[in-house]
Amino acid sequence: ALSPLARGGRRAAEATRFGRGLLIHKLLERLPAVPVAERRRIGRAYLERAADLGASTLAATLQAALDLLDDPAFGHVFAASALAEAPIAGVIGGRRYAGVIDRLAIGPERVAIVDFKTNRPPPPDARMTPPAYLKQMALYRALARQAFPGRTIVTGLLWTEAPRLDELDDGLLDAFAPDG
Questions:
Q1: What is the CA radius of gyration of the chain?
Q2: Is the model's pTM score more than 0.90?
Q3: CB neighbours (10 Å) of residue 134?
Q4: Pick from 114, 106, 119: which is nearest to 148 by CA?
Q5: Going edge to edge, which strands form the sheet with 110-117?
Q6: Residue 14, pLDDT score
Q7: Between helices 55-70 and 39-50, what is the axis angle to 10°?
Q8: Helix crossing, 17-30 with 55-70: angle to 10°?
Q9: Residue 48 carries which DSSP code?
Q10: Helix (H, G, I), strand (E, B), or coil: what is residue 52?
Q11: What is residue 166's predicted lDDT score, i.e. its pLDDT?
Q12: CA angle (124 as vertex; 76, 126 as ends), nearest 5
């Protein structure tokens, strides 16, 4: 989804999960490529330019993103070799599809697709994931299977409010796979 921040210009961030989620999403997109020692300074500068936040809200938003980046449980998601905002497209069943993957980690035998969910509380477990998200991830999986034949494709949702990474197994996604 294209946020107001992606379109440029200074935007007043609302004190809502949605506004905070958009800012955290942008930090998670940008900061993994920044040297660890510089992340706080650059993240703060980004937030100061991107939104009108009070000092405590700015500090809390930045800290939430930095905590995710520093959490060893998510290390593979934010590895330097993983791609941010990676476009993917293809044709399935005669229909053209395109999307943008939040983080894409491409290995010789395995491809990991992770989408951030920054403006919503997580469901209790992966089986309770909203159908719209399962449909999105099933489509990304199908497109990745075309782009990376012979490799294992794994998908996951990173719920930043938890924080928790839910791997979505094939059985969960199969019901939502695009026809083709």
A1: 17
A2: no
A3: 21
A4: 106
A5: 83-92, 95-106, 110-117, 152-159, 164-168
A6: 38
A7: 140
A8: 50
A9: H
A10: coil
A11: 96
A12: 50
163 is written with which tokens? 């924080």
The token pair at 27 is 């930090």
**Pick from 156, 84, 166, 82: which is nearest to 115 by CA?**
156
Q: Which distant-in-sequence residues (6+ apart) come within 8 Å of 101 by Cβ?
A: 83, 85, 86, 87, 88, 113, 114, 115, 140
pLDDT in tens, 114-125: 999 987 789 999
Average confidence (pLDDT) over 59-80: 93
Q: Do 126 and 89 touch, CB atoms closer than 8 A?
A: no
Q: Which residues contact 8 (CB under 8 A, 6 or more apart)?
A: none
Beta strands 152-159; 110-117: pairing state: parallel
How many other β-carbons are positioned within 10 Å of the β-carbon of residue 106? 16
Res. 107: pLDDT tops 50: yes
Residue 86 bridge partners (DSSP): 101
In angstroms, the Cα distances linking 22 to 9, 25, 124 are: 14, 5, 22
Token look-up 């520093």 returns: 70
